Structures
1.
Amino acid sequence: MKKLVSNILRLSSLESGKIGVERKVFDLTLTANSVITMLKPLADEKGLKLTLSAPQNMKLESDEEKVREALLEPARERDKVTPKRAG
């Protein structure tokens, strides 16, 4: 419930212009690969395989930092509930 309220408040702030969005064209594949690189040590520690299958040079016009945060969020949540594998 706390997360839902937080997301609603964040969306409200975006819509009202209180949170800035810095739109630019960037390579989504490179951004996703950087997220994979950041998460790989955590995945390895838990005995999980983390890969990315994406086309090269996939351009997107958006706020790169917000996209990076969106890509990281599921891993942050999953980390809270995924135990380390034995062995």
Note: Strands lie at 23-27, 59-63.
2.
Amino acid sequence: MSSGMLLALSQWGPTADWLMAAAIAAGAFLLLVLLRLLVRQRYSGLRETERIEFAELSLGVLPRTAGVFFVAVSAYLGLRFIELPVRASSVVNAAISIDVF
């Protein structure tokens, strides 16, 4: 980003922070969905072999990952760029911990 654009964003105050967090979350979600598509394509080729490889086991998890997990991870990544109150930060950390495990 250019310094002029950063200066313009700084005049927006907290709104710019939330817009940046939303952009980061959307980008992370898009990246995760694209990664899942690529892994599905690659994994389908690995399944055709008779021998089970380590990559097959680890790559078999991502294609079956639910979209809700991607939304939670994306939201978490976006919220990391916003300074939240301690209580809200604790809730976000607890929520992502529950979602991951």
Note: The chain has one domain: 14-100.
3.
Amino acid sequence: MTNGTIGEREPNHGVFETITGSPTFIPVEVPSLYANNTQFQVSPWDISLDFGQVKGRGEQGNLVIQPLVRVLMSPSHAKALLNLLSINLHAYEAEFGPIPIPPEFSSAEQATS
């Protein structure tokens, strides 16, 4: 599988160029979270992904979701992330077989294929 970093861009005399090479990560404690629910919002300037966990159903049968974290990124960064996810999911399926998608999500899969 491919490990990918979506590089930031830095100015170079008014022209932007892609940073190449391996990034150096600042050593900090990064929490590891499990999410089985994702909500998103899109604007012309950014994309917001809210990751959470489904905790069950409420009294009226609606899902109870615990929000965990919100990640905001530019549309171009989101598109690069989509590309890396696609590459890695195809590699995963090549090694382990197809990932089943519940029928209620099949139209969402077709929209991104």
Note: The helical segments are 75-96, 106-112.
